[in-house]
Amino acid sequence: MTFPLHGRTILVAGASSGIGAGFSRAIAAAGGRVVLGARRLDRTQALAEEIGEAALAVQLDVTDEASVAAAFDAAEARFGTVHGVVANAGIGTGGRATDVPVDGLRAVLDTNLLGSYLVSREGARRLIASGSRERGDGRIVLIGSITAQQNGTGDALYAATKAGLAHLGRQFAREWIRQGINVNTLQPGWIPTEINAEWFASARGRAEIESLYRGRLLDADSLDAMLLYLLSDASRQVTGSTFTIDDGQSL
Hints:
251 residues, Sc_DH/Rdtase_CS
């Protein structure tokens, strides 16, 4: 089963690397137009060139409301209505809760929770103004983490923001349910990316992988099918849900 996105425009926040870049390629491969949002414009421009005419790179700082609005303005100028948003931008600050500096804590909170709030809200505002209530084609997907349901050491606030995203998704889903907008949350397990590659290559990282029930990390494209489903017409009756895709890592 495939989930085509022909005629749909999707804005991906945090598209410059990792799963965000992978999501963008998958959306384009499914026939959608994709708006690549990130602070590292040089990276998204390179990705847009790779994808082709169906992609647009935009400067996007999800913690800045004006930047979020400008990104949607650019998307609409090129492609028209933005039908879907993937709120993927996120950062982490490692360290014991007693040691992490407050500036690092604020950056995590602002990017992961406030940033997802702002980009989702702007998408919903414009969908409603464009007539999503009648069309029923609004789709917002928040990218959480299995840390939302685990207890660990070294990522307390990161995990708390991801837990907050799951509930934020339910809140948004309830508020916009009569406006033709579906909101859902994806909670991935550990996936190899440039952010965590060094850690998983270390002795402790390899030991952590071996401790997983299946002794492996997720494949880089393991979320793509579910993401495309949630952005497509096939998910018209799915909203306010949280989906954990982790190969059993959190069991």
